[in-house]
Specification:
Elements: H1 18-31, E1 37-38, H2 55-70, H3 79-90, E2 99-106, H4 107-118, E3 125-129, H5 135-142, E4 146-150, E5 153-154, E6 157-158, H6 160-174, E7 177-182, H7 195-209, E8 214-219, H8 231-240, E9 245-252, H9 253-256, E10 264-271, H10 274-291, H11 297-308, H12 310-340, E11 353-357, H13 361-370, E12 373-374, E13 376-378, E14 381-385, H14 397-404
Parallel strand pairs: 1-12, 3-4, 7-8, 8-9
Antiparallel strand pairs: 2-10, 5-6, 9-10, 11-14, 13-14
Helix pairs in contact: 2-11, 3-11, 4-5, 6-7, 7-8, 11-12, 12-14
The chain binds pyridoxal-5'-phosphate (PLP).
Residues 42, 107-109, 133, 182, 187, 219, 221, 252, 254, 260, 265 line the site of pyridoxal-5'-phosphate (PLP).
Length: 406
């Protein structure tokens, strides 16, 4: 590292994120006329290979781009946006006496950055799953945090014991714990926790929080692509939140509204304590002001207007239902073919990805790239973005992968 680079940064000589690199190579080869199947990127494409888009979103953007993008939004987002996020997520829930702070961020990535900076002391750790989105690590390291890992699956089921062990360990070392769950439709496994699994996790964290302050992070980036209602889980999270157990939810409008480039998102924090709530607003306002200053006003207003208006809200729900079904259809084809040739996939419960645990995943991914299939080696396996592959190109992928594992 040369003398110009601050020692406080997370320095690596790689050119950034592997997912972005593989996606760029796939697009380059495609533009050169090569036949490519691009299952690398977490963006949703229609069966005609165009990027999914929602007409009410497009209409809003066209009409309001000038007005919205000229004015600053307030530091953590305007009131209407905050009300809209609460309404979109919790309209069927009872918030009881909880404080529910909504902080407008640059995507769910921004929400994770706020958490890593504002809720974790330097050199303390965030507890992450063993199979995970790689950017969690970069965000932690960039904020001078460490990473502790719980095993995601044991014998094909969520390894709650491992999560408990890591929380216990963190409490022993740091006298507090910040643990992240990416649910529903986990990236990259496609797993979603059952209500019973949530009950067990929350009762453990509630018990633990009597002794130590605990932050539970739920990254819900793929929430709206889950077949089941999340209402009960949200209620459990609201009920579990207290003055000792902070629930921090990361929301992404990139995925929900198909506006990846607009960088909209929110951090939603639940607590029963007025003092904690006031401190959270204080610290997050300073963080946001000193990094991106205020959220993208066009993004906060798209959410604010479309989530609160009944007819646009219903239009979005209808579009989401269509794409959700499309994803399940693609997953079904892949999983069925994988089963027939004994290629083990992680238990898929929804979302953009299916995942296969594979030794030598980097070598296997390189072999596949040479055959025109671009998927991502990560977390000891291969992630296939079924979101970015048209349905008629899914059949045959399992066989290609199986043949590349030797
Ligand atoms: N969380 C997960 C699990 C993701 O896969 C992603 C994006 O791929 C994000 C968060 C961040 O999304 P964004 O910052 O675009 O909202």
């Amino acid at each position: 590292m040369n003398d110009f680079i601050s020692k406080n940064t997370y320095f690596t000589r790689s050119s950034g994120d592997l997912i972005m690199q593989i996606n760029a190579e796939a697009n380059k080869q495609k533009s050169e006329g090569k036949k490519v199947i691009n299952g690398s990127i977490g963006m949703l494409f229609d069966d005609d290979s165009s990027l999914a888009s929602f007409s009410v979103v497009d209409e809003y953007l066209k009409k309001n781009i000038k007005e919205d993008s000229k004015k600053y939004d307030s530091i953590i987002g305007n009131n209407r946006f905050q009300e809209a996020i609460i309404s979109w997520l919790f309209h069927n829930n009872d918030l009881k006496d909880r404080y529910c702070d909504v902080i407008g961020t640059m995507g769910a990535t921004g929400a994770l950055a706020v958490i890593n900076k504002c809720f974790i002391n330097n050199d303390e750790a965030i507890i992450l799953p063993s199979i995970r989105w790689g950017n969690y690590d970069s965000i932690a390291y960039e904020n001078n945090n460490k990473v502790m890992i719980y095993n995601l699956f044991k014998d094909g089921v969520f390894d709650i014991d491992s999560l408990k062990e890591q929380v216990n360990e963190s409490c022993l070392i740091y006298k507090r714990a910040v643990v992240l769950i990416n649910d529903p439709c986990q990236n990259p496994s496609g797993y979603s926790l059952s209500n019973e699994e949530w009950d067990e996790i929350l009762s453990f964290l509630k018990m633990k929080s009597k002794e130590y302050p605990i932050v539970l992070v739920d990254d819900i980036a793929y929430l709206n692509f889950y077949r089941n209602s999340y209402r009960d889980v949200f209620q459990k999270l609201i009920d579990a939140s207290s003055d000792r157990l902070l629930v921090a939810i990361c929301f992404s409008s990139s995925k929900t509204l198909q506006i990846y480039g607009l960088r909209g998102g929110a951090l939603i924090v639940l607590t029963s304590s007025k003092e904690v709530h006031e401190d959270i607003l204080g610290v997050t306002r300073i963080y946001c002001r000193s990094t991106w200053s205020s959220p993208n006003h066009l993004a906060t207003n798209v959410m604010g207007e479309l989530f609160l208006n009944e007819s646009t809200r219903n239009a979005i729900l209808k579009e989401l239902a269509y794409y959700r079904d499309l994803l399940y259809k693609r997953a079904e084809i892949f999983i069925q073919e994988a089963k027939e040739i004994d290629l083990n996939t992680c238990p898929y419960k929804g979302g953009f990805f299916v995942f296969i645990e594979v030794d030598n995943n980097i070598i296997v991914a390189e072999r596949l790239m040479k055959k025109g299939l671009f998927i991502v080696p990560m977390s000891g396996g291969l992630r296939i973005s079924i979101a970015s592959i048209p349905t008629n190109e899914i059949s045959g992928i399992a066989k290609l992968i199986k043949e590349a594992i030797y």
